[in-house]
Each structure stands twice: as structure tokens, then as C-alpha cells.
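Researcher: I'm preparing a figure for a lab meeting and need a structural model of a single chain. I don't have an experimental structure, so a prediction will have to do for now. The sequence is pasted below. Please return the structure as C-alpha cells so I can convert it later.
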Amino acid sequence: MNRTTRPFVILAALALLASGCGGSGKTAATTTTSDAKPASRQTSEAALKVAVRTAIRADHQLSLYVLWHNEVPKWATQSTRGPALKALRSAAATRRRQGIQIKNLVDSYTVSAITLDPSYTSATAVIRSHQRVAPFEHGHRLGRAIVADDHARFELHRLANTDRFVVWRLTPIR
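Model: Understood. Here is the structure written out cell by cell.
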């Protein structure tokens, strides 16, 4: 066996071992692990709604961080992914190019409704937000505070069969 074929032979042997082919002619009992929980231990709908609220709160904290720092931190994917994270990155890059930071002065939001998909793999939340923010440029405040009243629909995705959700997409409600 030469040097070039040795890695392929080793990989093939490992693949056979991993697939359970021992060559003994007997069928080995296989043990499979799954993320699925038994019915008695499945997460309740109320617990999943709490998880949705937790994801929304974490996404909100992330948004405030990004407004001031104009960068998306590494921990961002713990609460936000997909198009919502892409939009945060884009907005941060635009403000960074313009040299503008946004400081949050007054902030409140209300979760109006949470709807879980029947499969429990996704959720939708309707949120009303009231903010008063001030723009800064190079550490100096620019003009007056800006008041923003937003109404949006948040689409959240559940991470596998965990009790965690992440904000996936935000859609403004007019």
C-alpha cells in the first residue's frame, strides 16, 4: 500500500465501522439518539411562548447594541438569524460609513400577540415599539431626539427540538 492510497483505505474502514458493518453476518442492535423528547417531557405551549418572549428580548438588546456600536457582535446569532440578522448588519454598515451612532433615550415595547405554528417549529409575534433616540456623529449629538413608534410582525424559528427560538424576519405593519 502506497502513501496515496493509505488515507482512502483508512477512511473506507472508518466508514464501514461507523455504518455498523462488522461482517459477522449478525445484525447488530443499533442505538439511535434523537432530539425528540417523549410525549410526557415535550415542551408545553406556555413554555414555548416564554421562549419566544426570551428571544424577542434578546433580539431587542442586540438591536440596541448595534444601534450604538454599529457592529454586529459574535453573540448575535444566539437571538437573531436569517434576514433579520442580515438587515442589522446592513444598517450597521450604513451608519458606520456615515459616521453616525444612535443612542437610545427612551425605550418600551409590547408583545401584542404570539402565535405558535401547530408544528411548534416556528412562531409569529406582533410587537409595538415606542422609542426616543438621539443621533450622534463623532461623539457629538446631532439635533433633536427622534421619536419612533413601530408596529412589526416578528417571525421566529425554533432551534431543532430545543426550547430556544431565534428572530428570523421582521415585517413592518402599516
